[in-house]
């Protein structure tokens, strides 16, 4: 949410952020309900590509399953790298806040990304037994930190008007169409809802996954979505000087809001550190989830050298090689940042588009079966008579999101602000297609 706060204000303004949050909550809930129904049918770590193989028509089953697997794995790999990048840049932002003379370099950010990733690797290998407790701790800390941050903001910050929060529009991205600007602003908050399917990829390590996984998906959106929506409202009502927030030297508007509120560098540092620590915990959980997805895809022969990466380590009882592959790939991608932050951002922008497309493919297949009234062997958790309507809404929201997430956030487009996620995604599709022919 904090990563999309600045572009969301520039494109669409506060109203776009608020109503974008509402749209993202309802749309993502439709996606979660649709995926939860499929998880109840087939609770496997491969998730989306397994469901595609199960639901797709025979003529296109092999090809769509192959493409689905590559899109899902690549989207999640981008998600790991993006969280790592976000945590690293937050640390750089705090260094700038405490030491204004500091001159941030891209290679500094890369080294910080390495540190974050190596920490996540160590926890996933040497402390795997405490991962469930760590995830529970992270969930509880979300609520505790929410209260800790909201209280000083509400008590100390200047107040924005309800008119500013709910109706004010901004179009500072150069778009001639306020509608396009509004759509881009709304979708900047969508990133914080991606990756809700992480629990699905741990299905083979959960008891009674056919019932438990759908419940986790719904609870994830309901709890985290509500907290994110309320926190967005608090930030907008307590934003103070919008220009100062948008042009903060730290790179993070939320740090500027904390500083305006408290007037203290130390208090701001502590407040932001609580969020950064949650980023660390989140990255550990995401690495665990993505490594299981990668292992499952290798187990089914989807990756180069699949037999090597499909092995489960006898000592640690985890897919150690898959964990190494996920972490090493993130480290390699972080090297791009040394040459160009824009190039790295292009890959990270694929997190939203790739994951949403990975959700849409099996939902399309399920909707097609429902429309044709073909028999479906549902699991113990089903959407019943509401299934078709929920699937259709999920598809509409997903198509809307994947369309506008490929747009550049500023006009005129330059080499620096260009959104390269579309060409990179096309390259991924071509690469996967070539691998399929081989």
Molecular structure report:
It is found in: Membrane. Its main location: membrane. InterPro entries: AA/rel_permease1. This protein has 438 residues and is mainly α. The protein has a single domain, classed as Amino acid/polyamine transporter I, CATH 1.20.1740. The chain is 71% helix and 0% strand. Helix 2 runs antiparallel to helix 9. It is globular and about 60 Å long. The two termini are 41 Å apart.
Keywords:
mainly alpha, Amino acid permease, AA/rel_permease1, 71% helix, 19 helices, transmembrane transporter activity, Amino acid/polyamine transporter I, 438 residues, single chain
Write the layout of secondary structure elements.
Blueprint: H1 5-10, H2 13-41, H3 48-55, H4 61-98, H5 106-126, H6 131-156, H7 162-167, H8 178-187, H9 209-237, H10 242-246, H11 253-262, H12 265-299, H13 306-309, H14 320-334, H15 336-339, H16 341-348, H17 350-371, H18 387-404, H19 421-437
Helix pairs in contact: 2-8, 2-9, 2-18, 3-4, 3-17, 4-5, 4-12, 4-14, 4-17, 4-19, 5-12, 5-14, 6-9, 6-12, 11-12, 12-14, 16-19, 17-18
Strand residues, percent: under 5%
Q: Mean of residue pLDDT?
A: 84
- How many strands appear in the DSSP assignment? 0
Q: Which geometry do the CA atoms define? A: globular
Question: Mind telling me the CATH class?
Answer: Mainly Alpha
Count of structural domains? 1
GO molecular function: transmembrane transporter activity
Protein name: Amino acid permease
Pfam families: AA_permease_2
Membrane topology: Multi-pass membrane protein
